[in-house]
Each structure stands twice: as C-alpha cells, then as structure tokens.
Design goal:
By secondary structure, the protein is an alpha+beta fold. The protein has a domain of about 110 residues: 2-Layer Sandwich (Ribosomal Protein S5, domain 2), CATH 3.30.230. About 35% of the residues lie in helices and about 15% in strands. It contains six helices and five strands; from the N terminus they run ααββββααβαα. The chain has a five-stranded mixed β-sheet with strand order 1-2-5-3-4. Helix 3 packs parallel to helix 5 and helix 5 runs antiparallel to helix 6. The longest helix is centred in the last third of the chain and has 19 residues. It is flat and about 90 Å long. The termini are far apart.
Length: about 170
C-alpha cells in the first residue's frame, strides 16, 4: 500500500509543474468587440467656483447650445463673448467648431462663473474631439484656464466669526 501511494504521488503532476506548463503555452487573447457604430461623441466637464458645465461634442453643422438655447441668445453680450472665446483662438478652432455640434448644460454658481465654466467645457470638448495635442497646446498658450479647471473653492466659515477669516468685534467697555 505504501508503494501505491508513493507511485500515485509521482504520477500526479504538482501544482508548480502545472504552472510551468501553462507558462510555456502561448496566450491567445480574444478579439475585442468593434467600436460602437455611429457618430463619434465626446463628453467633457468643466468647473468654476460652484458652477459645473457638462458638454457633449459630436459631428454636425456648427451649432452651439447652452441649456437648450442657442449661444447667440445669451445676454449680456460680455458673457456671450466669454463663452465664445475658445472659438476665436485660432483658425483651427474656428474650422473645427464649424463642423461639430456642441451641447452644454450648466448649473450652479453665478452668471459669470457659469460663463467661465461653459468656456472651459467648449475648449476641452474641441480639444478632445480633435484627437491631437495641437489644439490643446494652442489653448494653453492663449489662456491656461480654458483647459485647466480652477481648483480654488470658497473657504468654510469658522466659529468665533461672521465669515471664514473675519472675527467678531471686541468691546472693552
């Protein structure tokens, strides 16, 4: 009986031997599924203070919509100019923006912060849709805040004061 148990151990391959054999065999990976058919869509987001803008960029006729309204209807004109700044950086950005539809939804914050968040979302969307670093470099050279979100946030209020840093007045009499 003892001989039979030893023979069984010799015949059974060890776990190390099995792993060594598996490592020798070539690994065949399954083919990936083809990319989704249909138009290409790029999703980006941008933040400024408490405002968050989310944009989708897809091939189209060059329309830009902010919260389902055409960008040309935005008032006051100064905010519209801020939002459209990424389109005027260079001839490349203008030609690309004429070939894509940009839909932006923005919420939170004030009017100026929303305009700056929309500006960043449009710039990031155009740069991502172009699939190259050329437009991203152009935006960075023109104004870095178009591509890089402003990380600053409002400091929270502390105790012993009306605001974050200010303190209540002290009276000695």
């Amino acid at each position: 009986m003892i001989l039979m148990a030893n023979e069984a151990q010799e015949q059974a391959p060890t776990a190390q031997a099995q792993q060594a054999e598996a490592a020798k065999k070539p690994v065949v990976k399954k083919a990936r599924k083809p990319a989704r058919k249909g138009p290409r869509v790029v999703f980006v987001k941008s933040k400024r203070k408490a405002a968050i803008a989310r944009a989708s960029v897809k091939e189209g006729k060059g329309s830009i919509r902010i919260n389902s309204f055409d960008i040309n209807t935005v008032e006051p004109k100064e905010l519209r100019r801020i939002m459209m700044e990424p389109l005027t950086v260079s001839a490349n950005t203008k030609s690309l923006s004429d070939r894509v539809n940009i839909d932006v939804s923005v919420a939170g914050g004030g009017m100026s912060a929303q305009a700056q968040a929309v500006r960043g979302a449009i710039a990031k969307g155009i740069a991502a849709f172009s699939e190259g670093d050329d437009l991203k470099r152009e935006f960075m050279q023109h104004d870095r805040s178009m591509i890089v979100d402003d990380f600053r946030r409002v400091e929270p209020k502390k105790f012993k004061g009306p605001k974050a840093r200010a303190r209540f007045q002290k009276s000695y009499r």
